């Protein structure tokens, strides 16, 4: 059994849609191939595409042999007509200059809301099957909920919606045609309005006047009306050059492609319109600026603008000056404004056209260039050695100081490992440990090495090395920046200082020893004949001499420590006895200061400890004398703790005296450091005692530290030593080269 799907006989009902469809396709192709074309025509091209879609299904509906398929195609035809509303209104708004209706994505999408709602009505009523509202798909549920009355409601809504869009378009085109001065633009506007008016007249005649007023039935085909509009457009396309691009269209395309903002002012300096990337540059929308006085976004330099730019047009057609405009966010944007005046045929100025160029990228580039030049000058003038390497460890930058070490040779592009080597305590530091290995989120210091051996081009120096990386390094192929501080001169000065201190201490030791000897001799010879005052003077001389002798010994010890000649004589020592002897030696000092010393004897047996007893006794004496000195009329507690697992012995000396400020704690063992304030008052120390104590403990491979909760809360000095240091051969001093 054969089934007929389509009947393509020569029928007027099928002929009209075909002719209209062909005409629309012709206009569509003409427009799509036109270069250049105004941006508003893209909306019209979209409108034609939707109408072509509707025309195809109109043709299929009238040629289909199956009633059900006919109704389906007719439904799609109506949906196409409904959705033509959005591009038609977009074209009208764009063409007539009302772009604020469609200047944002959400506004453009809003044009599709009415067609979607109407399509919903179309599908959920029986318009699909019978053109009658009396029978509903959903048993009347939707209409009842929304309180819509039963009856032939859909067709008036559908026709009214289409006619509303057409009539609104006619009004806007007509108003635009009356307003615009360009004759081609005026002609285009009136032709658009006329074509749409012809469609409206035809629709009204076909659907209302003839069938219901006159009583003469006409083929109720909406595509015929569209076909008439297609004839009007096609006729003008071929004979009236409807879509010929006039100069304004070319200018519009050029301006749209420009990176500059074009502002059109009237004679009173109010903004008539704005073209170009105004949103991106200034942050304003077209609606924000239209009708706004230019002075509002140029308040600080308005007088200068009028005198330089506007008045400058009297002698020049175009002027260019730099100003600052206020952005939408309130900031100031540097711009260059070029201007020209718009005059009528009588030569009278009717307005001004400003071309605004954003200078911020140029200003930023100039700033970057200035910073780069400044950095280059600073880098070249720095005496430290600076070198930058890429991720292949090749040198990309080197300052003058670094090049001097390579005899001025060009090192750019060479592998840094071939030129430079870094060693610390005999172990080479690989260059790759000084550069970044991946992406970093912020500028980072990668490595720091102090007082290490640096060899560059066969020259070895003592140096501090710091390497860092910038967060943009992976983008500019810079893996690390290495800064090397040459300590050669500092090392020589330090050696000279140590030699001088050592010599001065030795030279002062002899007369001080003689003074003490003469004081002792005087005491023995004339002790009985001296008055009380003379005895006091003699005791003060002896005390001052003893203090100076201690100072000289400290200076000599510090000098030997820094030279690396402070040697140890390690012997097996009874630790408890060593601490006990130190306490007995300080009993007189404690009694004078009214300080009570509490020695908490360990409950377990303490094994022998391998130390230099003389040096360690110096450490204990220093800590104990400080505790007594800074805890007048107080208490001092001495504790010994033995860790048999780690084989370490820890000795702590705690006082309840003046305490130490938290800011001073990190510096307590630095050379010549003294706490400023209460602790310094009455103190006769040199700031070397704790420095020497730390050095002695370090030479024993131990650690020393201090704890204090703050001023007035006492302090605790502790040090830990290993038990099993190697004993010196035959009791001779064992040189230690550490410093």
UniProtKB/TrEMBL annotation:
<keyword id="KW-0418">Kinase</keyword>
<dbReference type="GO" id="GO:0005886">
    <property type="term" value="C:plasma membrane"/>
</dbReference>
<keyword id="KW-0812">Transmembrane</keyword>
<dbReference type="InterPro" id="IPR036097">
    <property type="entry name" value="HisK_dim/P_sf"/>
</dbReference>
<keyword id="KW-0597">Phosphoprotein</keyword>
<dbReference type="InterPro" id="IPR035965">
    <property type="entry name" value="PAS-like_dom_sf"/>
</dbReference>
<dbReference type="Pfam" id="PF02518">
    <property type="entry name" value="HATPase_c"/>
</dbReference>
<dbReference type="InterPro" id="IPR000700">
    <property type="entry name" value="PAS-assoc_C"/>
</dbReference>
<keyword id="KW-0472">Membrane</keyword>
<dbReference type="InterPro" id="IPR036890">
    <property type="entry name" value="HATPase_C_sf"/>
</dbReference>
<dbReference type="InterPro" id="IPR003594">
    <property type="entry name" value="HATPase_dom"/>
</dbReference>
<keyword id="KW-0808">Transferase</keyword>
<feature type="transmembrane region" description="Helical">
    <location>
        <begin position="105"/>
        <end position="124"/>
    </location>
</feature>
<keyword id="KW-1133">Transmembrane helix</keyword>
<dbReference type="GO" id="GO:0004721">
    <property type="term" value="F:phosphoprotein phosphatase activity"/>
</dbReference>
<feature type="transmembrane region" description="Helical">
    <location>
        <begin position="44"/>
        <end position="65"/>
    </location>
</feature>
<feature type="domain" description="PAC">
    <location>
        <begin position="319"/>
        <end position="371"/>
    </location>
</feature>
<feature type="transmembrane region" description="Helical">
    <location>
        <begin position="216"/>
        <end position="237"/>
    </location>
</feature>
<dbReference type="GO" id="GO:0000155">
    <property type="term" value="F:phosphorelay sensor kinase activity"/>
</dbReference>
<feature type="transmembrane region" description="Helical">
    <location>
        <begin position="189"/>
        <end position="210"/>
    </location>
</feature>
<feature type="transmembrane region" description="Helical">
    <location>
        <begin position="71"/>
        <end position="93"/>
    </location>
</feature>
<dbReference type="InterPro" id="IPR005467">
    <property type="entry name" value="His_kinase_dom"/>
</dbReference>
<feature type="transmembrane region" description="Helical">
    <location>
        <begin position="12"/>
        <end position="32"/>
    </location>
</feature>
<dbReference type="InterPro" id="IPR004358">
    <property type="entry name" value="Sig_transdc_His_kin-like_C"/>
</dbReference>
<feature type="domain" description="Histidine kinase">
    <location>
        <begin position="503"/>
        <end position="725"/>
    </location>
</feature>
<dbReference type="InterPro" id="IPR003661">
    <property type="entry name" value="HisK_dim/P_dom"/>
</dbReference>
<feature type="transmembrane region" description="Helical">
    <location>
        <begin position="157"/>
        <end position="177"/>
    </location>
</feature>
<dbReference type="GO" id="GO:0016036">
    <property type="term" value="P:cellular response to phosphate starvation"/>
</dbReference>
<protein>
    <recommendedName>
        <fullName>histidine kinase</fullName>
        <ecNumber>2.7.13.3</ecNumber>
    </recommendedName>
</protein>
<dbReference type="Pfam" id="PF00512">
    <property type="entry name" value="HisKA"/>
</dbReference>
<keyword id="KW-0902">Two-component regulatory system</keyword>
<dbReference type="Pfam" id="PF13426">
    <property type="entry name" value="PAS_9"/>
</dbReference>
<dbReference type="InterPro" id="IPR050351">
    <property type="entry name" value="BphY/WalK/GraS-like"/>
</dbReference>
<dbReference type="InterPro" id="IPR000014">
    <property type="entry name" value="PAS"/>
</dbReference>
């Amino acid at each position: 059994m054969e089934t007929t799907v389509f009947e393509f006989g020569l029928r007027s009902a099928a002929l009209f849609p075909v002719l209209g469809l062909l005409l629309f396709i012709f206009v569509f192709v003409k427009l799509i191939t036109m270069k250049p074309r105004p941006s508003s025509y893209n909306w019209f091209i979209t409108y034609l595409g939707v109408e072509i879609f509707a025309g195809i299904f109109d043709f299929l509906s009238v040629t289909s042999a199956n009633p059900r398929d006919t109704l389906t195609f007719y439904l799609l035809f109506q949906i196409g007509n409904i959705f033509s509303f959005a591009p038609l209104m977009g074209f009208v708004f764009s063409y007539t200059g009302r772009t604020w209706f469609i200047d944002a994505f959400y506004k453009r999408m809003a044009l599709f809301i009415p067609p979607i709602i109407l399509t919903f009505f179309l599908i959920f009523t029986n318009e699909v099957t019978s053109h009658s509202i009396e029978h509903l798909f959903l048993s009347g549920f939707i209409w009842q909920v929304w309180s819509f009355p039963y009856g032939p409601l859909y067709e008036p809504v559908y026709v009214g919606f289409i006619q509303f869009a057409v009539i609104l378009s006619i009004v806007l085109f007509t108003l635009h045609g009356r307003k615009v001065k360009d004759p081609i633009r005026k002609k285009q506007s009136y032709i658009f309005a006329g074509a749409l008016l012809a469609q409206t007249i035809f629709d009204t005649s076909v659907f209302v006047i003839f069938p219901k007023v006159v009583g003469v039935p006409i083929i109720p085909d909406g595509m015929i009306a569209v076909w008439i509009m297609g004839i009007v457009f096609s006729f003008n396309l071929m004979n009236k050059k409807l879509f010929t691009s006039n100069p304004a269209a070319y200018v519009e395309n050029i301006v749209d492609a420009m990176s500059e903002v074009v502002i059109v002012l009237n004679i009173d300096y109010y903004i008539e319109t704005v073209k170009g990337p105004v949103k991106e540059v200034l942050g304003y929308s077209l609606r924000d600026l239209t009708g706004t006085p230019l002075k509002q976004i140029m308040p600080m330099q308005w007088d200068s603008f009028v005198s330089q730019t506007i008045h400058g047009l009297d002698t020049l057609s175009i002027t260019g000056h730099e100003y600052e405009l206020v952005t939408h966010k309130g900031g100031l944007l540097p711009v260059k404004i070029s201007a020209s005046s718009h005059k009528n045929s009588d030569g009278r100025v009717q307005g001004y056209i400003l071309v605004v160029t954003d200078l911020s990228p140029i200003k930023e580039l100039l700033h970057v260039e200035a910073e780069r030049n400044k950095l280059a000058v600073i880098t070249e003038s720095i005496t430290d050695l600076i070198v930058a390497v890429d991720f292949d460890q090749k040198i990309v930058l080197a300052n003058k100081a670094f090049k001097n070490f390579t005899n001025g040779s060009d090192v750019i592009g060479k592998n840094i490992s071939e030129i430079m080597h870094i060693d610390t305590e005999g172990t080479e530091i690989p260059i790759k440990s000084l550069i970044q290995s991946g992406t970093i989120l912020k500028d980072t210091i990668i490595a720091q090495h102090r007082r290490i051996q640096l060899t560059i081009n066969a020259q070895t120096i003592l140096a501090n090395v710091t390497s860092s990386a910038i967060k943009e390094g992976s983008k500019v192929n810079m893996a690390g920046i290495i800064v090397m501080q040459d300590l050669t001169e500092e090392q020589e000065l330090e050696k000279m200082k140590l030699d001088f201190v050592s010599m001065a201490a030795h030279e002062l030791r002899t007369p001080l020893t003689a003074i003490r000897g003469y004081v002792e001799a005087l005491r023995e010879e004339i002790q009985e004949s001296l008055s009380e005052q003379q005895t006091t003077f003699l005791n003060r001389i002896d005390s001052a001499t003893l203090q100076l002798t201690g100072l000289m010994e400290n200076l000599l010890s510090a000098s030997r420590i820094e030279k690396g000649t402070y040697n140890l004589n390690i012997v097996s020592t009874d630790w408890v006895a060593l601490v006990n002897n130190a306490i007995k030696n300080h009993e007189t000092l404690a009694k004078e200061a009214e300080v009570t010393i509490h020695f908490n004897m360990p409950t377990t047996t303490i094994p022998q400890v391998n130390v230099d007893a003389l040096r360690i006794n110096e450490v204990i004496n220093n800590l104990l004398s400080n505790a007594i000195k800074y805890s007048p009329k107080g208490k001092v507690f001495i504790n010994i703790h033995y860790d048999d697992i780690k084989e370490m012995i820890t000795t702590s000396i705690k006082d309840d005296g003046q305490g130490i400020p938290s800011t001073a704690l990190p510096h307590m063992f630095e050379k010549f450091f003294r706490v400023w304030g209460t602790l310094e008052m009455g103190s006769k120390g040199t700031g070397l005692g704790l420095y020497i104590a730390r050095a002695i403990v370090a030479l024993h491979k131990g650690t020393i530290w201090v704890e204090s909760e703050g001023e007035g809360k006492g302090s605790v000095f502790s040090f830990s030593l290993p038990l099993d240091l190697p004993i010196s051969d035959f009791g001779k001093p064992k040189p230690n080269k550490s410093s």
